[in-house]
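We were asked to recover a plausible sequence for a given structure. The inputs and outputs are reproduced exactly as logged, with field labels preserved.

PROBLEM: sequence recovery
POSITIONS: 573
GIVEN STRUCTURE:
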């Protein structure tokens, strides 16, 4: 009898139990999660009750879309997965835009959605939605937990999948009854992913082919995409470009992966890219793509894209290689590992002196340009002023539209992970909540959100978080009282028929900011802008600056639909 009594504590230790909600909190701690972005509701109440006791910071957004865009900003700047929690039904469906956005731009997110109880799934129960079905095409992977004992393993797998290989969003749907069920708490769980084996290391023969191609080339160019940032290979890219004397072009999402003030940097390419970069892609004989997916906004008409080039494509996702552009030297690998292998080879350059002179002449003759006036506030000059006052060191987030392109053109990024924008999906409402996540990821750096008056009004309710969390985000609102890019297209391609692109009624954005307890400014000309920006950018408080910019200003250069990237409108006169 005595021996039996002594054995009981050992047995209890071996069968330590926890409910599903506590298991989830334990699993998040195992993944070193510091911040959750979310919004509670009925199906996740047990999870929020467990969170009440957990040492994990929670950011209560005022809309689920604000939560997931903030998580995207956090992921983009920190490199860690952004973690989001929402309830079932409308809570989960409000995340769909952000999930699709993260999928298109390869951002690591782990999303937890509540679900109705297992016993009523499929009965159209209150706030039921088939979230797994809805999100299957827009997630890297998704799960619905069916057995509470699987939850720790699923969480571990979700974080691994989201952050390895080509990053992306992973969703875990948890029925409410499982969050209150108890089961043995298993630690040090093993993953079970036999079919998931990303290839990080390049084939040495393909690397040799790349080196030989560089030696034979007279007009080479590097096209660097967001894969450089995800692979943390900015330093290797710089060494590669310098050793082989290769000019570098960035995609929109790749900005910051190579220093913009470096003499080998040509600029951003694409629909609103600079003349030199677009012409370099058109005229090159060797195109080395590192981590870009050749999307249509970059290539323009595929039939005239890089027509004389041998194409090398380095990408960790084999599905991207050859998808849009014929590839002559495919290299499936992590960008850092591929570049490290190239750097091991003896440097063999081609004869590129004339090519460099040719590109420098393009840069001198065809820079970005705009009309400078004192009376009308120029959005381009405004962004240049912010760049000058922050010494190009700020983290910049944007919404989508004209201001996004001006920021890409006129704010020169020197470092990686300082540029946060929605590229593939082009999501209005992204920029401001993304700035909140970016500031939480890097509290010491200055964060500037360039937003338009259209997109800002989609998620402006998150202004409350600046005050609530004491975040010194600087919101620079380029207010032209229009949907600027829509208006520009209507002007250029629809004979100035401005159908529903002009705002006849606008809020007082200064009063709106003040209603949230935030300092608001309004500027109408360059002189005011200089004074207000200097004051706002040097304090440690959140501010909103309503900048009444020229409503007729257009973004140039511009490649019209169906045209090649060498056929640009609005090149410097």
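RECOVERED SEQUENCE:
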């Amino acid at each position: 009898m005595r021996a039996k009594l002594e054995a009981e504590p050992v047995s209890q230790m071996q069968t330590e139990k926890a409910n599903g909600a506590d298991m989830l909190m334990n699993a998040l701690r195992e993944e070193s999660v510091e911040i959750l972005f979310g919004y509670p509701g009925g199906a996740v109440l047990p999870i929020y009750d467990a969170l009440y006791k957990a040492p994990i910071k929670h950011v209560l957004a005022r809309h689920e879309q604000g939560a997931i865009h903030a998580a995207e900003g956090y992921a983009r700047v920190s490199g860690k997965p952004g973690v989001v929690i929402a309830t079932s039904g409308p809570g989960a469906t409000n995340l769909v835009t952000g999930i699709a956005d993260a999928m298109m731009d390869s951002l690591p997110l782990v999303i937890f959605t509540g679900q109705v109880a297992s016993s009523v799934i499929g009965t159209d129960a209150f706030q039921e939605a088939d979230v797994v079905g809805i999100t299957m095409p827009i997630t890297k992977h998704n799960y619905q937990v069916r057995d509470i004992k699987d939850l720790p393993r699923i969480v571990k797998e979700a974080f691994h999948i989201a952050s390895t290989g080509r990053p992306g969003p992973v969703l875990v749907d948890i029925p409410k009854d499982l969050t209150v069920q108890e089961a043995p708490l298993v630690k040090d769980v093993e993953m079970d992913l036999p079919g998931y084996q990303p290839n990080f290391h390049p084939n040495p023969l393909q690397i040799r082919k790349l080196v030989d191609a560089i030696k034979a080339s007279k007009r080479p160019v590097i096209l660097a995409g967001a894969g450089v940032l995800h692979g943390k290979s900015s330093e290797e890219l710089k060494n590669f470009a310098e050793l082989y004397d290769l000019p570098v072009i960035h995609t929109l999402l790749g900005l910051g992966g190579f220093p913009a003030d470096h003499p080998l940097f040509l600029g951003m390419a694409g629909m609103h890219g600079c003349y030199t970069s677009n012409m370099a892609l058109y005229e090159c004989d060797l195109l080395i793509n590192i981590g870009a997916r050749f999307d249509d906004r970059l290539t323009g008409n595929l039939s005239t894209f890089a027509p004389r080039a041998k194409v090398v494509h380095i990408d960790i996702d084999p599905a991207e290689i050859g998808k849009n552009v014929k590839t002559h030297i495919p290299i499936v690998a992590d960008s850092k590992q591929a570049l490290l292998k190239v750097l091991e080879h003896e440097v063999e350059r081609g004869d590129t002196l004339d090519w460099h002179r040719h590109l420098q002449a393009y840069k001198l003759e065809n820079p970005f340009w705009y009309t400078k006036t004192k009376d009308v506030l120029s959005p381009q000059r405004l962004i240049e002023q912010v760049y000058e006052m922050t010494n190009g060191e700020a983290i910049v987030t944007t919404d989508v539209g004209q201001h996004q392109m001006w920021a890409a053109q006129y704010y020169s990024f020197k470092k990686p992970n300082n540029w946060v924008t929605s590229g593939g999906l082009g999501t209005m409402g992204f920029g401001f909540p993304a700035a909140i996540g970016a500031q939480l990821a890097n509290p010491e750096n200055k964060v500037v959100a360039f937003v338009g008056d259209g997109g800002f009004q989609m998620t402006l309710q998150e202004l409350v978080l600046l005050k609530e969390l004491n975040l010194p985000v600087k919101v620079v609102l380029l207010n032209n009282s229009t949907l600027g890019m829509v208006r520009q297209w209507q002007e250029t391609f629809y004979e100035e028929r401005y159908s529903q692109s002009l705002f006849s009624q606008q809020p007082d954005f200064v009063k709106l900011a003040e209603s949230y307890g935030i300092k608001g400014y309004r500027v109408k000309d360059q002189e005011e802008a200089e004074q207000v920006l200097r004051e706002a950018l040097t304090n440690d408080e959140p501010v909103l600056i309503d900048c009444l910019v020229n409503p007729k200003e257009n973004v140039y250069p511009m490649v019209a639909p169906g045209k090649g990237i060498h056929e640009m409108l609005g090149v410097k006169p």
